Each structure stands twice: as C-alpha cells, then as structure tokens.
C-alpha cells in the first residue's frame, strides 16, 4: 500500500489529481484538515491552479484538452469491488473556461484516445509541474486547506511512515453546491447545498 498511487501511500509522491476524477459525481470543493503532520515534518501538499497552467499552453493544446477523449483509471481502493481496474467514459480535461472549467486530472494514468490529445495532455502535465505553477504547502495540525475541486489539482510529497500511530493524518471533507447533482432513490444520506 505504501507504494500505490492512493491516499494510503507514503513512500512515493501522490501525483497531482482532482478528487474522484474517475467518477461522474465529484465534489465541488475538498477540505483537507490536518490532525497530525508526519514525525519528520516532510510531507507537503502540492496545489496547482489550472488557470495558471493554461496560460502557458498554446490555443491548439487548449483545444485538444477540451475534446471528450480523455479517460481516467478507477482508484485502486475500488478495484476489489469493481472486479479490477476500470476506465471512465471519455470526457474533456476541462469544459468552458468562461463558465465552469469542471476540470479533471489524474496523473499518472490518465490517457487520451487520440495521439494529438495525448501530446497535449503530456504537455499539460509538464506545465503543471513547473516550479512557478505548483505550490507545496506544509499543513500543520489544526490547519485546513479548502480546494476548489473544479479548478485545482492537488497531490502530496512522500514521507517516512512509521506505522506506530504518529504518522501524518488528514481528514477529507467533500462539499458540493448543488443537491441536484446527486439525488434520487439510491442517494446515501443528504447533500446540503452551500448557501
């Protein structure tokens, strides 16, 4: 588990992603509340605002990223229930930037169905990793990050886990603005709209 691309890993960097990129229903916001930093204070949360990255792409790359030809792998934590790895339906990396980008990102693993789109995705990944684009934040106990999951990707640096109850511990909270984005008979619980 320590070497998987998952929130339970520690010995490798958790690559940039938006929360629940594989799924059709994703939270609008993600809150990360730090209960405990790792013992050596090594772990950093990486944050990238895609608007900064898009400014470094040419219009042809942006147009490729807006095509519905990108697929995201299912999270490893769901493989048992799903009978193995699955892939999302093809979708764009982001939508209309003037209205709502509805950004998705899951590095590594995300792939395009067309060669030009894959080149644009590879270029986009290069850009979001540039020093002037990505921020690294040491979240301390009692500290909280509020991330717009439609505009911001996040990740985490590696750290040494001790597995003795003193390891880094963040709590996640998902927030959505629209109750209608997840409703129906099969809804588990109630999603309250933000006011």
Q: Radius of gyration over alpha carbons?
A: 17 Å
Q: Which structural class best describes the helix and strand composition?
A: alpha+beta
Q: How many separate domains?
A: 1
In round numbers, the mean pLDDT is 84
**Helix segment tally:** 4
Question: Helical residue percent?
Answer: 10-25%
The succession of helices and strands, N to C, reads: EEEHHEHEHEEEE
**What is the end-to-end distance?**
39 Å
CATH architecture: 4-Layer Sandwich
> Could you name the CATH topology?
Double-stranded beta-helix
Which band does the percent of strand residues land in?
A: 15-25%
CATH class: Alpha Beta
Q: Please outline the major beta sheet.
A: 4 strands, antiparallel
Oligomer: single chain
Task: Give the key terms.
195 residues, 21% strand, globular, single chain, 9 strands, Double-stranded beta-helix, three-stranded antiparallel β-sheet, 15% helix, alpha+beta, four-stranded antiparallel β-sheet
Description:
This protein has 4 helices and 9 strands; from the N terminus they run βββααβαβαββββ. It is of the alpha+beta class. The protein has one domain (14-181): Clavaminate synthase-like (Double-stranded beta-helix). The strands form 3 sheets. A 4-stranded antiparallel β-sheet has the order 1-8-3-6. A 3-stranded antiparallel β-sheet has the order 7-2-9, with no helix packed on it. It has a two-stranded antiparallel sheet with strand order 4-5. Helix 2 (59-65) crosses helix 4. It is globular. Residues 181-195 have low confidence and may be disordered.
